[in-house]
Predict the 3D structure of the following.
Amino acid sequence: MSAKFFIIGAGLWGAVMAERLASQLHLPVTIFEKRAHIGGNCHSQLDPETGIECHIYGSHIFHTSLPEVWHYITQFTEFTNYRHTVLTKHNGKIYSMPINLATINALYNRNFTPEEAKEFLQREIAEAKIAAPQNLEEQAISLIGRPLYEAFIKNYTQKQWACAPKDLPKEIITRLPFRTSYNCNYFTDTWQGVPKDGYFNLFKRLLDHPNITIELNTSYAKIKDQLPKDATVIYTGLVDELCNYQYGPLAWRSLEFSWETVNVCDYQGTAVLNYADLDVSYTRIHEFKHYHPERIEPFNLAKSVICREYPANFSPGLEAYYPVNNAQNNLLYERYAEECAKTQQIILGGRLGKYKYFDMDKTIADALNTFNALQKEIVG
Ligand SMILES: Cc1cc2nc3c(=O)[nH]c(=O)nc-3n(C[C@H](O)[C@H](O)[C@H](O)COP(=O)(O)OP(=O)(O)OC[C@H]3O[C@@H](n4cnc5c(N)ncnc54)[C@H](O)[C@@H]3O)c2cc1C
């Protein structure tokens, strides 16, 4: 393997890999990024009018229970003690997510204790009589019962996938977290928060090394013929695009974001409000100032930045957000991965290169593991 490394994509996976190659193996690395910024989908920037930090590709909250990931990433940023909570609007009423005792009691208009709620839901599940779920709808009902499914999962899922849940594979939902306590923390991980001085500064520090060169606004297609013949290409873009779609395109879901600055101090009282019903075509509204209540001035300003998130169909050329990991697409991905493995000089990484949804901590863990294997190969 050649030690001339070129990384395609300055997202989290590519940035971690570049940092490791530069700092641990003392190798020069060039990153080519087709966008005008580093950070990939984790990118954030300060809104020039309000000073509010906005997550440009949707809300990003860091959470992990992996000590090696926490130890690694905290070399480059401090995190706030932000704890994520999510609310959802259904039939004009606001409920707490993920489903917890407050949600159950509000939907059924009861005051169950935890034990009563457990027994009640077991009866609801038994009543649905689904022994062997065949699709996502049956899978969800077999986990939480029909009324909770119909209120909070059915229409939200239909909006996300543009497809009725009964026509979706059951594998999309392997578990549906519900709690019979009033714990409304969205994540249960040991470490959680958002970078104290922003994702943009986290990425600046990750990539701030004399061995790292970054070329923005530069797609792989533009430079691939100029790379040395013995270059090792670490590729975090779409694998089907890399292979000229020779077996056909991989399926993804896309998103559209619609931004607005509103003349109120607090638009919705929380960072994320989901919309569970079909009469609203977006799935959620993000209000970014709530990620940083400690930033007093933007937080108290009589303006706020909100962003409506709309699920969208994907076709090559649009942003790919969520892989559609059914059996057929996974097989197609394997064909592409095998094609790339025929050349020693391409390493696939990241959510696009691996056709897999990764949270940020899993992205870091995967990049670190790939680096460790590479290091063994290079230095033995
Ligand atoms: C809406 C949404 C919300 C999320 N929220 C959270 C959250 O709250 N918490 C969490 O832990 N995770 C969250 N994630 C997951 C998180 O975004 C990923 O873990 C992370 O972005 C993966 O990093 P990556 O480097 O693999 O991919 P990306 O961030 O997509 O980076 C890939 C980079 O490669 C570049 N690129 C692609 N092709 C080419 C090419 N041909 N030439 C040059 N450059 C190229 C792209 O422009 C991009 O910058 C969320 C994801 C989504 C979609």
Q: What stands out?
A: Residues 85 and 184 are 6 Å apart (CA to CA). Residues 47-85+189-199+252-313 form one domain. The radius of gyration is 22 Å.
